[in-house]
Amino acid sequence: MPYLILFLKGFIIGIGKIIPGVSGSVLAVSMGVYEKSLDYLANFRKKIKESICFLTPLGLGIIMAILLFSKIILFFLNSYPMPTLCLFFGLLIGTIPSVIKKIKFKYQDYLVIILIISVFLLLTSSISLPTFEINSNLSYLWIIMLGMIDALSMIIPGLSGTAIYLMLGSYPFILNLFSNPVENILASSCFIIGFILAFLLLAKLLNYLFKKANHLTWLVIISFILYSLIMFLMEIPFVFNLANILLAVFFILLGFILVLMTPLE
Q1: Residue 199 vs residues 41, 83, 121, 204, 222: alpha-carbon distances, Å
Q2: CB 175 within 8 Å of CB 146
Q3: Would you say 146 and 194 are in contact if contact means Cβ atoms under 8 Å apart?
Q4: First vs last Cα of the chain: how many Å apart?
Q5: Mean pLDDT per 10-residue run, the chain (265 residues)?
Q6: DSSP string covering 95-120, please?
Q7: Among 29, 37, 91, 39, which residue's Cα sits nearest to residue 59?
Q8: Phi and psi of 180, rounded to 5°?
Q9: Dihedral angle computed from the Cα positions of residues 125, 131, 135 and 140, in that order, rounded to the nearest 10 degrees
Q10: Are the CB atoms for 93 and 251 separated by under 8 Å?
Q11: One-letter-per-residue 3-state SS of 176-212
């Protein structure tokens, strides 16, 4: 695969990582780079040259998107929250068809999906924390955990790290950290440590699950995606009138079309 295409796909995945409710790993699935990335990460020592050639342009695209778009997205979320979130919602919906086709559904599969979504809604509906700020040395342990959450969202499709950050009151802090990583080098280092620890532990595990329990693994992933959609809808500030409805439909369709126009495998 040409390096430029890999870089562009990484760039799109990077944008997805910093959008609330959108999972960068779901975008990776829809663009045909997810399982390859997981395999290269899990077997890096066995395939050093192939891994470097594949992961380097992809990773550079992700990092570039995060550095460039964090401030822009923060501006639009603060200034135009409804249309911005509707655009992101459309992006998330657009990733679903490519994931759904990965699995052949049976009757009991729908019950499993409903059960998983219900459990997560029950667990997260009662969680609401104040906006996070660094106020003690213990704050840096929390930042390590935030890095681990970011790794989880990179590895598990449908699990949106930004949606979790919103719920934990840490999303503004993360956006500012991404857009100004050098200003607080200690916080950035703690975040990277948490990310690397979780990433190394989970990459091999999920690669194993795809090989040994592929059907169940995809069921859990689809459940995460549908759960993210529900949580995302709850974040959109919406006033019901004709103008807002038309605006919301326009931006949802725009996001959906943008994903469908993205070159896949």
Answers
A1: 9, 33, 25, 9, 21
A2: no
A3: yes
A4: 9
A5: 79 75 68 77 78 85 83 79 82 74 77 81 65 78 88 73 74 79 84 86 77 80 77 72 85 82 55
A6: HHHHHHTTS---HHHHHHHHHHHHHH
A7: 37
A8: -135, 65
A9: 60
A10: no
A11: HHHHCCCCCHHHHHHHHHHHHHHHHHHHHHHHHHHHH
Q: Are 265 and 101 in contact (CB under 8 A)?
A: no
The pLDDT assigned to 264 comes to: 47
Residue pair 84/232 in contact (Cβ under 8 Å)? The answer is no
Residues 6+ apart with CB under 8 A from 23: 16, 92, 95, 153, 156, 157, 158, 159, 160, 161, 224, 225, 228
